[in-house]
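Protocol step 4 of 6: structure prediction from sequence.
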Amino acid sequence: MKMLQRKISAAALWLLSFVFIFSLGVTKVRAYVTIGAEIPVNCKKITDDNTHVYKIGIKAENNDSPAPNSDLLEVSENGMGRFEININEPGTFRYRIFEIPGSDPEFVYDNNIYDVVVYVENAAGDGLTYSVVAHSSGRDTKPDVISFADVVKDSSQPESNPEKVPEPDPDPEPEPVPEPQPQPSGEPEIFHTINIGERMSGGVIDVFLTGEAFPVTMLVLVTVAVSALAVSVFLFKRKKTGEEDKDEK
């Protein structure tokens, strides 16, 4: 009997130890019910026929933020669209929402950017609840709604392109001062041009007795005249000497 009690006590102790160890090693994983968080976007009216379409984009700011079901919304003017995000755990998730500008030159597209934070918290019965807070970049106040408003360009007034009047130069460059001309020397230079007409009308003497060649030509003429005179005197004396010799004979 005592042996049986010991075996029962040992089995109970082993079972209690197993349960205790199992309770320490196993952690219960809580599964939350997935919720679909929505971020509404309002697009304002800009034309009379409601034909303008907005293209709105969304981008997750980090890898911890679940990706939206679609990263692009096409919303007609004066309408509203919603980005949907499936979330299955509590946390703080950040996104950026903006308009993708089109190529129509008649419109000025809204360049506003919204930083959006989705706060997800626990709810009763393994559920989740969320809230959305948006902040417009460059503005201090938080907007009530995320909205975009494009503008139609005013085509009634054509763009003016007035001629640009040149501004006066505050530091104009001085006009160049003319360089002084060299003063003439005391002895003026004499230039004389001999052309064919002068040679035809004045003859050779006019040519040699005028202009720069005058000193040289004068010396040549004097030399020739003296030489001719010397030859004439020599011939005259020789002739006279010959006649005297004849008379003596």
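Step 5 (inspection) to follow. The mean pLDDT is 76.
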